[in-house]
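Researcher: Before we compare anything, I want clean individual predictions. No alignment, no superposition, just each chain on its own. First chain goes here; please echo the sequence and then give the structure tokens.
Model: Echoing the first chain and its structure:
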Amino acid sequence: MIYTAQHRDLMDSIRRFINAEINPFVDEWEAAHIFPAHELFKKMGKLGFLGVTKPEAYGGLGLDFSYAVAASEAMGYARAQGVAMGVGVQSNMATPALAAFGSDDLKREFLAPAIAGDMVCAIGVSEQGAGSDVASLKTRARRDGGDYVIHGSKMWITNGTQADWICLLANTSEGPAHKNKSLIIVPLRQDGKRAPGIQVQPIRKFGMWSSDTAQIFFDDVRVPVRHRIGEEGMGFIYQMKQFQEERLDGAARRLASIMWIEETADYLRKRQAFGKPLLDNQYIQYKLAELKTELEALRGLIYLATQTYIDGGDVAELASMAKLKAGRLSREIAEWCMQFQGGMGYTWDNPVSRAYRDYRLGSIGGGADEVMLMVIARHMGLMNMNA
């Protein structure tokens, strides 16, 4: 996959938006542990940034997934990754299954407002006892006439305190764990208030402070069966496909960690030690060169996975490799940049220390490193694919 002038134009537009509407405010949002999603998403929706790959009939740009990856790469330049993650949830985690398998009515009611930025959305898969092990989730949606009655809870919900609706994975029948789940759109707000039966508990995290994260409880919440995405029992399959876009989105955002290498090099040119700039130290030069080389190798892997996905291929292995490498490498880049900046790098308000805290989630969220290794090992034939 090679970016065209159209890809570059999209990325330039997003970076200009970031510099004008996001980066000047990230310190404020980090301190508040939340960014104003409704306000920001409305601005992004007007520019088409929230529906890059979504159908034009619902307000999207109708472009292929390479443009989503380009947009994610550009979003990585937000100087608080919690904001970029919140945007990623809206664009590449909570809405792909709805766009691909939802009914026309469902897409008009929930997808179109999400693309326009009129609604904030979330994805509800993980639970307190079922994170990476999606098959073991306990939340149930019991059929009662023309409704589902939902009981359970979801954990680590990005955009959780602000979301208008959540794309919820729940058990809708008995039977095999991979065939008894459905994806359901559940409104979290009605008439500007919390919907009946919904309770939201904010979670304070090590990093990603500007992203509001919550545990959400569902106490016999009733939604129409028509809110189900696609066929009943196909939710696990739909979510696995949705995961591939999520993992490539997250990996692409990590390509922007080149900015910390560049900014650290600039700092070290000015920082004098032992009568010369610190950047004159050959060890530092070689380490920064090595990190950039690793980053370019990751870029090639992400672009290969993206092209394979566009061509209709199975990218479970490649996307897992990309996520695994991106989570580890971005953290390594931030750690080395913090080390080379010395005491100033270790201060709480230094952007590179924030990057380290934010990037740490990359090896945990959206499937831990150990799960990515398990997926890769299965595709290598090293373990039972059904284990």
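Researcher: Okay. Second chain, same rules.
Model: Second chain and its structure:
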Amino acid sequence: MSYRAARLAALALVTVAAAAACVAARTVGHRSSLPEPAGGWRVAIAAAVPGSSGKDGCGVPFGGTLAGVRSADIPCGVKVYVRFGSRTVLTEVVDHAPPSPGVTFDLTPALACLLAVRGRAQVEWSFIG
């Protein structure tokens, strides 16, 4: 197999995996009563990042259905709301490391899918009350 064919096959595999993660993330049940956001909404730039294997910086198994954010400023496990357009998701910090340059949060592929974020986007976020 040529380099070009191998690269196209790898890109196709990543695309299929991301689509599967998106579908799996949407099928996770949600609670009907969630805590209210606390302290108002803050604006941030977030980036959808590709997934990886193994564990992230918080020791959480990092997989295709993990919906979370990477933040250098907020400790592991802290719950936050992230809002983009009409979609709001209650998630948590799953990686305490510097995000991509120029952004406040990196979004796991599953969270990016839930929020319909592609690339970089201005999001709003809040701690839970």
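Researcher: What stands out in the second chain?
Model: Confidence is low (pLDDT under 50) at residues 3-17, 23-31. Additionally, The radius of gyration is 15 Å.
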